[in-house]
Amino acid sequence: MPGLNLILLGPPGAGKGTQAQLLRADFSLAHISTGDMLRAAVAEGSELGRQAQGHMERGELVPDELIVAMIRERIGAEDARAGFLLDGFPRTIAQAEALGRALGAGGRELSAVVALELSDDVVVQRLAGRRVCVKNPAHIYHIDFDPPKHEGVCDQDGARLIQREDDREETIRRRLAVYHEQTEPLIAYYDQRSLLHRFDAARDREHLHEIIRAELAALRFAEGL
Ligand code: AMP
Q: Are strands 130-133 and 161-162 parallel, antiparallel or unpaired?
């Protein structure tokens, strides 16, 4: 069975990472986060990491060629063949077109695009309070809304919690501007292709997850995936 091939779209801070963790378990998907892959490359000090680092710290996008090469390889991997969830990719129309070509060449296609919608003010409030685990970036907390049991320490593995360099308010504002300018046009792009499913991301994450899960389960059933 081909499984669901999904994109999670939305501004930074809309909860893409959190929903991705939940949905990958629901539908046995490979979770592919370009942000996490790039941060790992920076930590490793690889050539890709060196080329990406400055762009990331400034809150700008990493050049399309680098990202597209990285993603093409990743979606070709065995675990992604039974369904994947792209988190943070595509972020430009050029990336979306490259993705469409890469999938088409392998006889695959997208199942749906999950668009999480959230206002800029809520994004800033959420991101400025976000803390992530130094050992596993998927362990995410918020100092007001989802604090760890012990301040500054990850509940799941006891590692230190830090604020991402790009979660400072000034950088968040820049990332939002980049989102509106370069990534938001993808909403219309995928709407035209009848792939878009919109969700109000201001609701709490369990409720949001339930609604998305139900809609994707119905889609999977309807398409026999
Ligand atoms: P994220 O964790 O998804 O917010 O990504 C963190 C940073 O990595 C972004 O601000 C960009 O600098 C870079 N990045 C992640 N995904 C992409 C992408 N698809 N295209 C370009 N840059 C990206």
A: antiparallel
